[in-house]
Amino acid sequence: MKFIGILSALTFSVLVKADFLDNAKRADYFKMTDNAVPTFAITMPSEEYEQLKTTITSNVGFGGFGGFGGFGGGGFGGWGDFGGGNNGGWNFGGNNGGNNGGWNWFGKKKRSVEREEAEKAQLLKRQEFQMDKTKKDFKTKNASMVFTLNGTNKTFNEVTFSLAGVSSQYYAKQAFNIKVRNDELYGRKQFRIRSDAREPTMIRSKLFCDVSNRLGLVNSVSANYIKLSINGEDLGFYVIMDSLKLTYVNIEYGDKDSTNLIQCKDLSAYLTSSSVNGKCLSENEDNPDISAFNQFVSQLDSANTINQMNQVLDVENFFKVTILEWLTGSWDHYTLFGHNYNVYKIPNGKWEVSLYDFDATWGQDLALSFPTAGTPAGLNANNVDTWPKAKFEDWINTQKQHPLAVIMNEDKNLFIKYLQEIIDSTFNPGLLFDRIDEIKDFIRPYVKDDRTKKLGRLNPNTSCTEYTYENFEECSEFTTINNTFIGSQSHSYGLKKWILDRFVFICSTYSVDCSVGQEYLNNFDYRNTTKKSKTTSPKTATQSNPQASSSSCWSNSLGYNCCSDSNTQVYYEDQDGQWGIENNNWCGISRGSNAAAPCWSESLGYKCCSSCGQVYFTDENGRWSVENDDWCGLLANC
């Protein structure tokens, strides 16, 4: 049929270009799935699946944060009740944007520095206790899995399947872990399956991993996408990532039963002896000896020069990891929260630091970190425009992070050197915008299907934002949107806008060569950007869609036509008015216009669709769907 031919051509034309990761070290699994979305079909006893669902929906007593009361200068509205109890919450009045204004605990406005630090430590303990107390556990070793890639099945009869995550458990769609026992799946045995429900785009984790892989960061995890089902129930679309466990180091380094793989999961572990005690634990449950790790941290404590640290720590890799955290606004790792990282000693080598969990990157929920980690100078939680403008030296805390203190005290030029390398190779808008477009084009139909059908929403009791398909389209570009995490208001920074704003700030603040992205400096107007088509057009266009233009079109004076339909979706709003997109160009939305949208595709030899169907293709002319086995143009109001 004609319809099948069209879809087949479309399927093979929407690809994620592999050249971004040409020289990256990745497992065969991730290389094989760059341009495919395989299916993980899990089977487990029905009673255990019901137990999993019951565990997810159980109310274990997390009363909510009580609201991050506007922050102002970093103010914290208080943690809510514990499990229906009567605790009144912890009310903090503000820390003056990090300028030692004092945490207003129980109404007292002034504290000594020592008391302030003690109170912050108590807050961290309270947070850790609350999260640990409410974490839901489920694990079964009675699962099996059929893995399907490009029509080929592989069956695994011994699979461990478990509920994962901490904060992710409060969202409608959950996170899971999978371990293949007594077998491998293309060079890997363990995977993190993440819904990435925290953020709107489902691109942040993938992009962070791709950047880390491209930079060659040691043991940087890789990411792609899968479809997941359990006992025949379609749970939708997920991010799949490496899991740095004992199986990983055995496969990569032949280091079986290692006692040198450490996970720093709890807060405020800054690789000092006083901070890691009880917070960084061995991944080897059978032999949890961490004496070698403790000796390593002690050596870091006594080091006063970069050379001394470099005897035991891969300083270059560690420093680049922390710079990447800062560049991406990653608050949930080493530099701010002091957790979500692994430390591993390569046999006959040095200790290496690597990160995991990346949904809170690229400007996602940055303000939620301020009450705990402190507000970097110049940032304001209520003003997202300040978020990309933190300096590296203000982002880190050299009083607590001795390894970074040694580096910055001895050689600040090392920061400029590594920052320049990262800008030249990866962190520049031209390269990353194209990468985002490639990923976005590839996952678009899967995201739309997942969010339209609301697949895998096993927790109906969530009080967190559930993002829409429209949020995916908006936030992966330049639009920042509001969200809610357990009743607390936050923001999802526009993904491309974060990269643009961060790049502009860096180039105006530090002595680095930004010629690789020169066109994005000097008040670059991102409304002029047009997304490059990554697919083959259904028909070569000979003329473009005429744009609405009249004397009443307010955007004409700004160099933009008005949208042909006054009901066009709003993608951006500023002091001039509301902006939509037509033919991959910005257009001003004139609410006073009631003109019907013309059938733009007739001039190209295709009828317009009789109804608003699924978008199968978008080019410079407009959006295309399929009716009666042929292409049709979707009207602007669809």
TrEMBL record:
Q: Where is this region: Disordered?
A: 531-553
Keywords, A to Z, come to:
Hydrolase, Repeat, Signal
Offer one Pfam family short name for this entry: CBM_10
Report the leader peptide range.
1-18
Q: What SUPFAM superfamilies has UniProt attached to this entry?
A: Cellulose docking domain, dockering
- Report domain CBM10 positions: 552-590, 598-635
A molecular function (GO) term: hydrolase activity
Renumbered to this chain, the Polar residues biased-composition regions fall at 543-553
InterPro entries named among the record's database cross-references: CBM10/Dockerin_dom, Dockerin_dom_fun_sf, Spore_coat_CotH_CotH2/3/7
Name listed for the protein in its UniProt record? CBM10 domain-containing protein
Q: Which organism is it from?
A: Neocallimastix californiae
Q: What is the lineage of its organism?
A: Eukaryota, Fungi, Fungi incertae sedis, Chytridiomycota, Chytridiomycota incertae sedis
